[in-house]
Design brief:
By secondary structure, the protein is α/β, with parallel strands linked by helices. The chain is built from 4 helices and 5 strands. The protein has helices at 28-36, 64-73, 89-93, 95-101; strands spanning 11-15, 18-22, 50-54, 78-83, 104-109. Strands 2-1-3-4-5 form a 5-stranded mixed beta sheet. A hairpin with a 2-residue loop joins strand 1 (11-15) and strand 2 (18-22). Helix 2 (64-73) runs parallel beside helix 4. The radius of gyration is 13 Å and the shape is globular. The termini are close together. The relative contact order is 0.19.
Length: 117
């Protein structure tokens, strides 16, 4: 089942090997807030969790720098952006934002399945 045509799942939050939040119609900001409220997954005083974003089908208005700032504000440890190499330049340019926020940043060149029913 591919959910890409419905603009869902372009971003999610994973912590300790568990999927905590899956972006749906509420948008990435609301998904990040929902993940933050799941405090039992945090490590007291330490950042925990990773934001992953598919850049072949990014959420509307997705700016990697803005997403990194939001992730830092929600207590996440870092972010991974994946997609075709042609889509990753903006994420790689956001490295300075990640450094300022104390987050790790990874980009993964991936050939993702095409969106479709």
């Amino acid at each position: 089942l591919c959910l890409a045509p419905f603009r869902t799942g372009a971003a999610n939050v994973v912590a300790r090997g568990y999927l905590l939040a899956f972006e749906s119609v509420e948008g990435t900001s609301a998904m990040l807030e929902r993940a933050r409220r799941q405090r039992q997954w945090g490590l007291r005083g330490r950042r925990c969790g990773v934001l992953t974003v598919r850049l072949d089908a990014p959420p509307p208005g997705a700016d990697p720098g803005a997403l990194l700032r939001q992730a830092a504000g929600k207590g996440l440890a870092g972010a991974v952006f994946l997609g075709p190499a042609s889509h990753l330049a903006a994420a790689e340019d956001a490295g300075g934002v990640a450094d300022q926020a104390g987050l790790f940043l990874a980009t993964v060149v991936a050939s993702l399945p095409a969106s479709g029913p």
